[in-house]
Amino acid sequence: MSKKIFNLILLGPAGSGKGTQADLLVKKYNLQKIEAGELVRAKAKEDSELGREVHEIHKSGRHLPDDIMLALMREAFQNIEPDKGILVDGYPRTLGQAKDLDKIMNSLKIAEKRIAILIKVSDEEALRRLLNRSVCRQCKTVLIGRDKKICPRCGGEVVVRDYDTDETAVRKRLQWFHEKVMPAIEFYQQRKMLIRVNGEQSIENVFEETVQKLGQKIR
Ligand SMILES: [Zn+2]
Fold first, then answer.
1. Span 156-178, mean pLDDT?
2. Terminal CA-to-CA distance of the chain, rounded, Å?
3. So what's the pLDDT on residue 3?
4. Among 64, 123, 52, which residue's Cα sits nearest to residue 96?
5. Which one of 29, 33, 73, 199 is at 20 to 30 Å from 53 when CA atoms are compared?
């Protein structure tokens, strides 16, 4: 049975539920996930010049510059299986990064079909969710609400991250999205690669809308 290979680029502000949708999409379409946050955390632990630099920047809460993100992405793309689609999450976060990702995919001749998915939520909704979420220290699963102390997925300790308690910091992240990520989204829009999904619905309905719109794009 022949199947179409396609690559997904998942976009959305913090609080859009992107991580959850990423997992669902990976499972449904048997994709390999490249998650920028994971790459950054792994690199920050590495005992190398780049590792130490990433550690310093990451610790300070600043965004990693495009060239460092490109290096991490290139590395990740070296380890992919060529006959399987990819889902990229947490990248690109600037227009420059969108162009970089395009170049990586072109150079590796990865399936022509590339689709960017934007999960849309309003700032008010994102803010409301971010100020009410917690995260598993171990597997990094993000949980809605702050009442759970033990992760339902892995049994790890659930904590509230400092940057999810500071409203100013949260607003700053949303601001970054408007200023820096929107131009990347427009990049995909202009190339007719973009699907927009309403993120202000239940997890199931967001997923259903995504799958339905993807179906129209990949046939
Ligand atoms: Zn966990």
1. 88
2. 15
3. 60
4. 64
5. 33
Rounded to an integer, what distance in angstroms lies between the CA atom of residue 27 and that of residue 194?
21
- Reduced to 3 states (helix: H, G, I; strand: E, B; else coil), residue 25 is helix
pLDDT > 70: what percent of the chain?
A: 98
Q: Does residue 41 have a pLDDT over 70? A: yes
Segments making up each domain of the chain, as ranges? 7-218
What gap in Å lies between CA 181 and CA 173, rounded to an integer?
11
Domain 7-218 sits in CATH at 3.40.50.300
Q: Average pLDDT, whole number, for the chain?
A: 92
82 — phi, psi (to 5°)? -70, -20
19: CB partners within 8 A, 6+ apart: 89, 141, 142
Cα three-residue angle 72-75-80, rounded to 5 degrees: 125
**Are the C-beta atoms of 34 and 73 separated by less than 8 Å?**
yes
- List residues, by chain if needed, whose CB lies under 5 Å from ion ligand 1: 136, 138-139, 141, 151, 153-154, 156
Are 10 and 21 in contact by the 8 Å Cβ rule? The answer is yes
